[in-house]
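Sorry to interrupt, but I need a hand with the structure work. I would like you to pick a protein and set down its sequence and fold. Please put the record directly below this note.
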Amino acid sequence: MTDNELNQLSARLGQRLQAEGASVTAAESCTGGWIAKVLTDIAGSSAWFQRGFVTYSNEAKQQMIGVSAAALAEHGAVSEAVVREMAQGALQAAGADYALSVSGIAGPDGGSDEKPVGTVWFGFASAGGEVRAERRRFSGDREAVRRQATAHALQTLLDHLSAK
């Protein structure tokens, strides 16, 4: 997905959030703030995006958005349990209506047989109590994995809002 396509996707998501009178926050690890960047590239985004959390380290995940040490120790940062806690913690900390969370292995190193490079977990939470997670595997270099993860997170939330 090109920068222009990411910008268009962000604009569509922003329009949908604004029409609903809703806000979104993001808790990012492997995307390193890319979700927040593309959202804030949209003029007027402060109406529906007030803050994001770049929680690259395990310590940041615990301190900023309340991810439990137990989940990190038992499952690792790139896991369903952790992205669920990231989304819920960001939702609560930001007071938003929706939260996205992303944790993955963008490479080129850090992969394993169980979690190869390109593995990314996504969490989604809503103020209404919905929490879900999903795993994807992306190909390409570090930038390609991060770009695909950013696009997938935004598209998934837009799809969810459009289905309402």
